[in-house]
Amino acid sequence: MNFTYKNPTLIEFGKGKIANLKNLIPKDRTILFLYGGGSIKRNGIYEQVIQALQNHSFVEFSGVEPNPTKETLDKAVLFARENNVDFILAVGGGSVIDGSKYIASSFHYDGDGWDILENKYIPKKALDIGVVLTLAATGSESNSGAVITKKQTKEKRFFGSPFTYPSFAILDPDVLKSLDDRQIVNGLIDSFVHVCEQYLTINHGCLVQDRYSEALLLSILELMQTFDKKDDLWYANLMWSANQALNGLIGTGVPQDWATHFIGHELSGLYGIDHARTLAIIQPNLLRELLDEKSQKLLQMGKNVFAMQTDDVNKVIDKIESLYLSLGVNLKLSSYTDDKNIAQKVIELLHKHGFDRFGINRTVSKDTVEKIIKRSL
Amino acid sequence: MNFTYKNPTLIEFGKGKIANLKNLIPKDRTILFLYGGGSIKRNGIYEQVIQALQNHSFVEFSGVEPNPTKETLDKAVLFARENNVDFILAVGGGSVIDGSKYIASSFHYDGDGWDILENKYIPKKALDIGVVLTLAATGSESNSGAVITKKQTKEKRFFGSPFTYPSFAILDPDVLKSLDDRQIVNGLIDSFVHVCEQYLTINHGCLVQDRYSEALLLSILELMQTFDKKDDLWYANLMWSANQALNGLIGTGVPQDWATHFIGHELSGLYGIDHARTLAIIQPNLLRELLDEKSQKLLQMGKNVFAMQTDDVNKVIDKIESLYLSLGVNLKLSSYTDDKNIAQKVIELLHKHGFDRFGINRTVSKDTVEKIIKRSL
Where in this chain does the record put each Fe-containing alcohol dehydrogenase-like C-terminal domain (chains A, B) (predicted)? Predict the structure, then answer.
């Protein structure tokens, strides 16, 4: 257990907190108000932000896509420079926030921003970012990571930088009420799998990290089971669970295994499948292919999360899969695309991105990926 | 669930991390190297710090007591001013760290530093603080609170300020190996009760906060049960559990009840009893006096922490008490002092400090305190 940890993001959690924007951003800043497809204009969040910023200078950039593309974000970078912006306010979910991190890091870089995603350029500074969260899912509002898509090559890649932690994040659970069930379900699955990627590894004996992960899994499980009884507290619990699932805390000092995400990213890059759905499709089958190395943690999860008295790992995996099915998620890859060469394309992209062997013990080979995809068709 | 949360302290966790001091403190600072009774000279920590600071300017101030007194700390303030100090390095446990917060806040204040403890002066700035932790117990290394004693009046009071979060804290679990059992036991109890004060309140339905608290209680319980099998990982788990128990996270947005601490502080102010031991003495009897209002959470604790299938609250309290006894702690107040007027003196001091009725529903009256003390004799 050896680690460095700091999470500098100020969290403002609760009803009505969007109004605090006026105090959270210094008056002398020129703000890039960044958002997505315009849903914030229908649910009243746009009005709340405009109201809070009435004594601030800002320019608006909208149209950041659900899987934010470098192509769109590069336009935002130019727009930000033209307007001498020195603060980005990201109002949205993971996509808009991730996008803001790309813009903030590219702003001071003369080359192609995609270099950051390919580790050819390491940002040395970034614009300040503030967040008004409108979706509970990715945890991006208080972590430093971002996933960006290159439309031209259908690639989806990750970067992180110590300079891209938002300085503040406003989490008003009321904003979740206008989301449709599909978005809420995606948030539940996304945060559940985020915890799993930091938990279903090896038996390391770090007590707090294991118990914290189980705490979040228990919380999200309860939310899944009470999906039809959503009230104010339900939304607040979802918002805080999703935040904690990926703010860096539960993964400090322990091994992590993001194999499901690596495969999932290629699938949503190739076919535009919702991020959370790619995870729900891949994760159970990945676990089935890695039964031996995952069995110890899976049995622990069965006992401590699902209260199962079993030493059959398959039953624990079936339980995880049944949760996703109970939320109405289609787990058949063939329902999302009629491409006959999914495995081949995924393997090619993974290779291009340097993932020939990955997973906690580097046991996920081309062959393993092929088997996982075959199980998932 | 409505809260503001930020924890700005950088945690450097792991073996050998003390050497990082040289990079964590800017070279142009003049450091007050603050420590306690000199145990760090016997266990090698002093040498590690001196080695790491060989290219820094620093002055030393030692002699901060286990319950740090304003009288000693005021001397440190004068010493710090005389030496134009602009950074405090606290090397110690909760007492030294709490002391550093008093010094950092008083440094810029012309009046009596004790005014801060009496809320007569609210610090508007403070010196920067860095920490090398030598005891796992109070969590003071990454929170903003401090408990200070006034020797003259035997008062022990609390203050907190947004300016007194340490900027960094080095947590090297190896430093715990030189502690005696009494100190380790105190750390286990202190952190266990810290969690309880944020957990044993009312049934609020905030899932993450409840599950996180149970996660820490389960971790500390396991450490108590494996006290005789202390290895590297055991110490690391203790250090991280104690930190998380009071860094502000588990108590965000939920009610807290520090009644046990309020009574405990008066007892250690009056009789010099170790802080943790006052908690172990008082807590079970306080719970017995507040059976009705605590029953829902106690039964939840019985089920989720102790895996007890009972609806008898008393059995859960007995279980808590038995943990403290199993660690060899004497729970009879009469063994620590032969004063016949304990209750009266505690009640008088509580009154002086504004605590005539306290606890989650303000149900802890003079009468309740008297009954709790009587049960504890």
Answer: 185-376
In contact, A52 and A26? CB cutoff 8 Å: no
Pick the closest to residue A273 from A149, A168, A369 (CA basis). A149
> How buried is residue B20: exposed, middle or buried, by Cβ count under 10 Å (0-12/13-18/19+)?
middle
Query: What is the total residue count of chain A?
Result: 377
pLDDT tens-digit map of B146-205 = 999 999 998 989 999 999 999 999 999 999 999 999 999 999 999 999 999 999 999 999
Q: Residue B168 has which token pair?
A: 């960094």
User: Which chain A residues touch B229 with a CB distance below 8 Å?
Assistant: none
Contacts of A15 in chain B (CB under 8 A): 2
User: ipTM of this predicted complex?
Assistant: 0.96
Please give the pLDDT value at position B81: 98
User: Within 13 Å and on the Cβ side, how many CA atoms surround A316?
Assistant: 25
Domains in chain A and their CATH numbers? 10-174 (3.40.50.1970), 181-376 (1.20.1090.10)
Judged against a pLDDT cut of 90, whether residue B377 lies above it is answered with yes
* A207/B223 CB distance under 8 A: yes
Buried b / exposed e across A341-368, counting CB within 10 Å, b at 16+? Answer: ebbebbbebbeebebeebbbeeebebeb
- Round to whole Å and give the CA distance between B186 and A172: 40
| pTM > 0.95 | yes
Which stretches of chain A drop beneath a pLDDT of 50? Answer: none
Q: Judge whether B89 and B45 are in contact, CB under 8 Å.
A: no
* Residue A129 near residue A167, CB atoms below 8 Å: yes
Q: Are B111 and B29 in contact (CB under 8 A)?
A: no
Q: Does A23 touch chain B (CB under 8 A)?
A: no
User: Residue A108 carries which DSSP code?
Assistant: T
B209 vs A169: CA distance, rounded Å:
19
Q: Do B1 and A233 touch (CB under 8 A)?
A: yes
pLDDT per residue as tens digits for the range A267-324: 999 999 999 999 999 999 999 999 999 999 999 999 999 999 999 999 999 999 999 9
The residue type found at A312 is D
pLDDT in tens, A26-79: 999 999 999 999 899 999 999 999 999 999 999 999 999 999 999 999 999 999
